[in-house]
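PROTOCOL LOG
Step 1. Enter all chains and additional molecules of the complex.
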Amino acid sequence: MADPLVEVQNVWKRFGRQWVLRDLSLAVERGEVVALLGPNGVGKTTLLRVIATLIRPQRGTVRLFGRPARALEAERGRIALVANPPAFYRHLSGEENLEQALALAGKPISRAQALEAMGRVGLPEGRTVAAYSSGMRKRLALARTLLARPRLLLLDEPETALDTGGREELVRVIGEVAREGAVVLATHDHGFAAEVATRSFAMEGRA
Amino acid sequence: MRALVLALRDLRLEWRGRAGLLSAFSFIAVVLFIMGIAFGPDEANLRRAGPGVLWVALAFAGSMLASRAWALEVENETLDDLLLTPGSREWIYVGKLLFLWLLMIVMGAFLLVLVAAWFYLPLAAWPQLFVTLVLGGTGYTVIAAFYAGLTVRLRARDVLLYLLVFPMILPVVLAAVKATLGIAFGAEFAEIVSWWKLLGVFDVVYLTLCVLLFPGVIEG
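Step 2. Run joint prediction.
Step 3. Record the structure below.
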């Protein structure tokens, strides 16, 4: 049997003296969409960042694509993390942000490809991100995900601020990534989790 | 190549925002104005103080710009995206260093002209002054870009940056001031070259160490 795409084993993470994750274990197989559910402060975002190798747990191990997460220099480009709100350069336009992000990830794209992806998610060209609404930023993050084609997509409250059309596009993108990889998303919306996730993972406790 | 893309993008962002550049250039103008009044109007005094004023102004303004280079990522909350790019992370440091270096050289050239006008620095020796600027500026930016990256996630980063950078760059500033003084007072060329060699050694050693250490210090 193939290794899980994500394997978190007995992870403990604290900030200062406050433990946020306590002995947490989770495995995500290829093709799965796992929804992390739980109240504010329970550690959903922290878990996403631990999986993304952005923060190191005090104890426990994280394996991605069958290998220790810390040894994944080349494969890091196969992981995409969409924060809430998604991060972009405010003084660059949407298409410039896409071009820059992909160029720095070692997957350069043309202006036409950037505009095509923006068109698909219903974004106009030529506007700086500073003038974007929250929903437009989420749509731009979807466009970036479409272009980056990650194997592992980590989403932090992806459904917030999206209108019906944006939400439908989000569901489509999640489905596309999950066909060849896996998606882990943190959400408070049980209805959305039921709509897109193949499995829910309830996180409990107090941060 | 990715380092160059990053440096050019940061230049574009800085040009569009202009906050860092405006602060640095305003700071330089104020420092020169105050120092000019403090040391003036005697020509000999001004000539003697010129090289020191040049490098002190450049060092403080450089720290402001170094902080700015990483603040672009903090303001836009994009540091995570940079850290998620594939491959080892030295290129992120090299990109930030390149961005800072270009700004420092432009700012240094501008400062040279101002100091020459006010503090009687001989601009006829501009090739030698420029070599000193490049060698001193490189040593300074190598250290400043490294520590600015090291402290980028800390709330007290602006204070810490000055505390960490200035002890480390003392040899660079001293050697650069000595070389500039030599040029201003017509010292033997061999003496100036000896300071350049020292600056060159600092540049190579600091650059090698910072590139090697950076991937470890930027991890969360």
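Step 4. Note key features.
Residues 26 and 164 of chain B are 24 Å apart (CA to CA).
The radius of gyration of chain B is 18 Å.
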